[in-house]
Amino acid sequence: MRAFLAVLGRELRLALRHPADALAAVLFFLLVAALFPFGVGPAPETLSRLAPGALVASALLAALLPLDRMWGAEAEDGSLDLLLLSGLHPALIALAKAAGHWLTTGLPLILATPIAAAMLNLPTEAWGVAMLALALASLVLSLLGTAGAALTLGARRGGVLLPLLVLPLAIPAVIFGAAAIEAAGTEANARPMLLLLGALAALALPLAPLAAGAALRGE
Amino acid sequence: MANSRGVCVLETIDLACWRGERAVFAGVGLAVKPGDAVLLLGRNGAGKSSLLRVLAGLLAPAAGHIAWQGRDVREDPAAHARRLRYLGHLDALKPALTVRENLAFHAALTGGEVAPALEALGLSALAELPGRMLSAGQRRRLALARLALSPAEIWLLDEPTLGLDAASVERLGDLLAAHRARGGMVVAATHLPLPLPGAGEFRL
């Protein structure tokens, strides 16, 4: 437990020393969301139709940004060897890294969601559900992304391979996330969609770190 | 470390390592007793670093196995990891963290006190400096300070003195002597003279 907290604590401390990384992901999220009005035209009804899907897709793309350095940086400076020799199970190392990614990238994206939602003319009553849906969807992506980054570690052009590997797996999160936000915007019940999204996160929570751990050990 | 001296506790049996299609080494039989030190010698690319990584369990051997007190270490990799300290040729230092924070992270992983370990390598005065400000020799000293954190039975050292000044090599010598006096084992790969009196040699 102490080692797990040490890995997580170091992730948070490093993120605080380099706040530009989290800021870059937030700005990327807002910029991608801002491109939609330019593309489909500024008509309010069209935008709010598009808003749920655009929000989830841009948030997931932004959350992918820091992933390709997640294990690469550790492998390049030799830290990964020491992490693997720490006696902490590789799956727990991966879980700590995933938690670190969610706290340093997912959380800032959730906090920025109202800004993106306003730009996309999402009805204000759906903002709460939008933040909740993005919280769960980004958690799923942090977990899948940790496994994907571990698998592509050492691969030539791993940075390109990673989204190709992770984004198809994130499709269910986009579907249920967008459906939850849309339901909240039309005053339908968003609860079933959020529960399904939660189920995805609950599924990825044990499986993705185990996959990442196995990939790291095989390196 | 309850073993009586004279009994080989770390052994490699017919160990082989492949990199792609090429055999790096094969048929390596190494035996280390408590208090022993073994210097791995060989030209560049002879597989000294690979052998250390195999011994650490970071690289799977293509053939053969490593035995600890007669038992294959693959039976319990976590226990093997806990009984060794591995110093690779990389320093595993985060430039954004201070010297103290860097070492405190490893102390949380392996146990041990940070302040005495910094003192042992003469890094106390630099404790609050961020890692990126350190010179190559100071970075190496910080990596070596991990060895001083808490006792472990096996030290696997890859070019431990690279970039060190004479005073630091002497400090490392004290650490190595204390480690061997406790019954600790050292396997080191190097091209430079190491402060390891009476060390055995193994040529790859």
UniProtKB/TrEMBL annotation, chain A:
GO cellular component annotations of the record: plasma membrane
Key words, A-Z: Cell inner membrane, Cell membrane, Cytochrome c-type biogenesis, Membrane, Transmembrane, Transmembrane helix, Transport
Transmembrane segments: 20-38, 102-122, 129-154, 160-181, 193-216
Superkingdom, taxonomy of origin: Bacteria
UniProt cross-references to InterPro entries, sorted A to Z: Cyt_c_biogenesis_CcmB, Cyt_c_CcmB_bac
Compartment annotation: Cell inner membrane
Bilayer topology: Multi-pass membrane protein
Gene Ontology biological process terms from the UniProt entry: cytochrome c biosynthetic process; cytochrome complex assembly
GO molecular function term, any single one: heme transmembrane transporter activity
Free-text function comment from the UniProt entry: Required for the export of heme to the periplasm for the biogenesis of c-type cytochromes.
Family listed: Belongs to the CcmB/CycW/HelB family.
UniProt protein name: Heme exporter protein B
Organism whose genome encodes this protein: Rhodovarius crocodyli
Gene that specifies this protein: ccmB
